[in-house]
Specification:
Blueprint (H helix, E strand, L loop, with lengths): L2 H34 L5 H40 L3 H5 L1 H6 L6 H22 L5 H30 L14
Length: 173
Amino acid sequence: MSWLGRFAVLWGIGGAAAVLLEPIARLSTQVLTAFRDPALTWWQVAIALVWTAVMAGSEGYRAFQLGFSPRIVVRAFHLGRHPTWWGVLLAPMFAIGLIHATRRRLITSWSLVVFIRVLVQVVRAVEQPWRGLIDLGVVVGLAWGLVALVVFWARAALTGRLPTVSADLPSQG
């Protein structure tokens, strides 16, 4: 892989990691605020723990570990092997699947961006401690996804074996 290709891989995966890290850091303050609330009840904590388990399983494991994180790595390494000036420049968007992807991947990726943006606005309107309790599940799911991304990247970089998920490139239909 050329130096430009290696840069594309690092920029694509690093940019995608930053997309996950930013809300983890931002939402963690809401979680801490909720758990510092002296009016927080045991049943609210119980609901938060159940919600967090649901989010860990659905968002963390199913969405991120089984799909999103390995696909980012596969797409970033594809770009690294076939760098173009526009692909390298937009490597995080390429890796995430927002550009140069199958029609289905583009629709899915952009729909998720819009859906998440709307959901963020709805949750911002929720009062504490509920907002922080909701955000706890989101933070756990995102953190799971970030860890999975780093593990898949490290495994691919060290062994040369990519995850076995489709890159969803246009030529793959």
